[in-house]
Amino acid sequence: MTVCITNKEKSFKAEVEEAKSFWSRLRGLMLRKPGDVHGGLLLWNCSSVHCCFMRFSIDVVYMDCAMRVLYKEEIKPWRLGKIVQGAKHVLELPVGKAAHITVGDTLVVEPLLSSVRLGANNK
After folding, report:
1. Most CB within 10 Å of its CB: which of 22, 61, 85, 122?
2. What pTM was estimated for this model as a whole?
3. Which of the 8 DSSP states describes residue 22?
4. pLDDT single digits (tens) 69-86
5. H or E stretch including 15?
6. Residues 60-71: tens digit of each pLDDT
7. For the domain bounded by 2-110, which CATH number is listed?
């Protein structure tokens, strides 16, 4: 399923896939090519990540249960992410896409309506 993540104060918006199951969280972005990762991946009920079998670096945003940003970092392939106390959810984005997100921001998750796609010209 695809959702829209927004940070309304900082004009950040991304269309991301959701990973809710154990297997989808475990797989994450492994073995994908950078071009296959359009918006990113939101990992529900996940507090840490790794970049084993990754082909590219990613921005990682750690959030608490209220979607408040606790920490963010760039992780290179074959590296482990930081253990962040209080982290409940993780957002993985292509490198540089988290530039408009800072610690303390609250992100909003909204369902993506099929008729409204990011970047589409809607009239």
Report:
1. 61
2. 0.80
3. H
4. 999 999 999 999 999 999
5. strand 12-19
6. 999 999 999 999
7. 2.60.120.1140
